[in-house]
Amino acid sequence: MTNAMKIIEMLRIIDNRAKFMGIKLTMMKNLLEKYKDNKELLKEVLKLTEGTRLHELILEAYPPLEELEKELREEEYKIKIASEEGGGEVEGEKEKREFCAFDGPVSLIAYTKEYLRKYYLGNNVTRIFYDIGKDYAIKLGINNYEDMINFMKEEFGETSIEKSEPLTIIVRNNKECKNCRASEPVCYLTAGFIAGCLENMVDRKYIVDVVEKKCQAVGDPYCLFITRKSIRLD
């Protein structure tokens, strides 16, 4: 999980737990002010929340971000103009479209994910599918290793715990990336699902990070996920 995503996760927690709008906005402001000298990080937060209710709350809680919002719009406009003048996609867009290829029949989730990446979400698809997997696990209430592994065997692939420190989970023949070919790991839904289960196991007292270090889509023999408790929620 990137630093921007950690901030977004904390903002979501504030949004969900603070009952009164005044308290909610104050808590969000206090959090965002800690990063006021890191413009690029705050820009990333704005990009990743664009089009959401949380984005609107962020701007309301911390008005100085409106200037960064304007800068982002100007940057996007320049990219668009450069693309049009060049008669096609800019290099970054070209790379994004060529991110993942299919070497055979793929799961519906893999196809949907890549379609959304190409035509609608860009690299935001990473965060969105991670969050979907995490929220799904939390809603299911899976809160022990046995249930997590059994569920993942049915929905993802053959799952096992490799070691406990740091907690390392292996998924073989993961449906999320079956017959996919990519330059970096692509199993965001699986990673998010594991994170959600683990947060349930610690009664959601921590935000759990899960990172995919190996992936069959890049030629590895299996998908490998490393987990850690990153932030304590008092």
Automatic annotation (TrEMBL):
UniProt xrefs under SUPFAM superfamilies: Ligand-binding domain in the NO signalling and Golgi transport
InterPro entries: NO_sig/Golgi_transp_ligand-bd, V4R
Record keywords, A-Z: Coiled coil
Keyword NAD: no
Tagged with keyword Calcium: no
Coiled coil: 25-85
Pfam families membership: V4R
Domain 4-vinyl reductase 4VR: 166-229
Highest taxon in the source lineage: Archaea
Protein name (record): 4-vinyl reductase 4VR domain-containing protein
Species per Swiss-Prot/TrEMBL record: Methanocaldococcus bathoardescens
